[in-house]
Amino acid sequence: MSEKEPPAKDESSADRGQGGDQGDRKNDGSQRSHKPWRTEGLPAGHGDDDKPRRPRWWKWAAWIVGGYLVLFLLTTMQDQMSGGEQTIAYTDFTAQVQKQNVAEIFARGDTIEGRLKQAAEVPGKSGSTYTKFTTERPTFANDNLYGDLQKGGATVRATPVVAQRGVLVNLLISLGPFILIAAFYFWLFRRSRAGGGLGGLLGGGAGRQKKPVDPSTVRVTFADVAGIDEVESEIEEVVDYLKDPEKYRRLGARAPKGVLLAGAPGTGKTLLARATAGEAGVPFFSASASEFIEMIVGVGASRVRELFGEARKVAPAIIFIDEIDTIGRARGGARSVGGHDEGEQTLNQILTEMDGFSGTEGVVVLAATNRADVLDPALLRPGRFDRTITVHAPDQPGREAILKVHARGKPLAPDADLAALSRSTPGMTGADLANLLNEAALAAARQGESQISHRDLTDALEKVQLGTARNVVMPEEERRRTAYHEGGHALLGMIQKGADPVRKVSIIPRGRALGVTLSTPESDRYGYDVDYLRGRIIGALGGMAAEQEVLGVVTTGAESDLETATRIARSMVGRWGMSDAIGPVSILPAEGDARTAGVSDELLNTVDEEVRRLIEQCYAEARRLLRENRPKLDSIAAQLLEHETLDEADAYAAAGITHAPPTPPATPEPQPAPRDRA
């Protein structure tokens, strides 16, 4: 499955046709929203519903003005009281000068302010003294005041003795605390919006979410998705209901309340959910399940309530919860602490909200997971997630369609064959194919090419599947041993009936491997028989068998081959009933210890014996085939030592084998892992 990146200035016909004018409207409110979900296609006028209630500013203004007046009066009175200057007559001042009791003065015009050395009695007020004073010097006074002050040792200053704050300074001081308080509450208000309430404040910003994307430029439809024909037919009923709910209501039918999209990572579950909303032309609310969880218990549940409430306002709509297994795991396990942890409360709220749907609101919940086996049964019962859709990796036609979607906007050379590339990529998902084309484009750009050639595509596939080539200089003996090792893999893949064709053989170190042999089927396979699986084991053991037959040694290079062979053999014996000694019984679980399911130690020992017997038989068969075809093995090894890498045609030519593509099997299969020599 794949997505085409929409042009920045293009309003797609799907948005205009399928979604009406909803897809083209700007959701300005969603642009400013800090809720833990993203929205697409909201109708006009609904973007501001999620704004927090505005405070009553007139009350705030009244408190600020009143507080300012009180603080201003207090600071002014403080200045007046702290000054403590006594207004005295000029004659009293001159008397103190004659007594040489003046310590310092400040003169500004005819106004004199100063301080006495010793306190003097206030004239006319018995028992009241003063030290600081102020007086006015008459303009007709004709005395030698400056000389008298100098005789008494007084200091004459050009600045005030007591520095007083002016009205402007008092104004700033009185307003300063209120400005700081107002700024703090404004920050607190914005922080609470960004963090979803108390959890965002106390969680250290953990609740801060990305802003919603512009809904007018991100809507996608099924035209932007490829390789999901069977899934599209399953979900088309949901799309049809959202487009025309009245048709179903007349017959008393209701749409599924929830649809669970299950599949491996990269198969396009999120893209499918977006395309469903875009195809139906309804608002789309998307969130990751982990975004509901906070340290503060109750935050997740409140966010769920708010999300479902917003969706009901603009119904019909789609709510999409990605990675729902984060909060939807089966309850009652070791992760629960008394059954009241934040994850369980959030899950309970989701269940409650879905129970509140009558089926006529037009709100459908889509969820995605790659671990459907761990979900709580309460989520999957009818009335909640009524339908489970499995999204598989695409088949060959689907991969070709996906490659064409991702090739839009990329200049391809005439020799670029996307059909051939799709046949070489069984098991790849839409994300893998998108990455493959991107790697090819990067490679072409590095080499200064104007178009992406088929060589760039194959080099990118080689890099993705086999790893990046390492510049390692191996000793000649090591190169020869590696050449025979990879030659053994390749030759057994060529001569075994029904084996996957050999696509490439290389002794260039890549990743952790010193050499790689890549084999892929002509077409996808889904079913395995005993002969094919035995051939896979024989092919995996071909490198080790070649080393022992030719060089008489066994090296650590067969480690990954032995792991592959053992894994296949254990599945054949313990899971698929392909052993006569065990019979048609599944013994080994996909995960965990078989003993917990009641399997006895004796039966497990029998499984081990059968696995060993099967691998030993396959190893003996591999050595026999290589002995009988030793000249072909020597020829492949010689060509590898000379050219280091052999393509499909060169490899078959080196072995002297005519390659005739086999008839495609009735049922297709995921790509086998490449055999390598670590």
Automatic annotation (TrEMBL):
Homohexamer. SMART domains: AAA (SM00382). One of its GO terms (biological process) is protein catabolic process. In the C-terminal section; belongs to the peptidase M41 family. In the central section; belongs to the AAA ATPase family. One of its GO terms (molecular function) is metalloendopeptidase activity. It comes from the Bacteria. Zn(2+) binds at H485, H489, D561. The gene is ftsH. This is ATP-dependent zinc metalloprotease FtsH. Acts as a processive, ATP-dependent zinc metallopeptidase for both cytoplasmic and membrane proteins. Plays a role in the quality control of integral membrane proteins. Residues 1-53, 651-678 are annotated as: Disordered. Pfam families: AAA (PF00004), AAA_lid_3 (PF17862), FtsH_ext (PF06480), Peptidase_M41 (PF01434). GO terms for cellular component: plasma membrane. The lineage of its organism: Bacteria, Bacillati, Actinomycetota, Actinomycetes, Propionibacteriales. Residues 1-14, 22-31 have a biased composition (Basic and acidic residues). It is a multi-pass membrane protein. ATP binds at G263, A264, P265, G266, T267, G268, K269, T270. It comes from Kribbella sindirgiensis. It is found in: Cell membrane; Membrane. It is an enzyme of class 3 (hydrolase). Its cofactor is Zn(2+). Keywords: ATP-binding, Cell membrane, Hydrolase, Membrane, Metal-binding, Metalloprotease, Nucleotide-binding, Protease, Transmembrane, Transmembrane helix, Zinc. Residues 255-395 form the AAA+ ATPase domain. The keyword Metal-binding applies. Residues 661-678 have a biased composition (Pro residues). The active site is at E486.
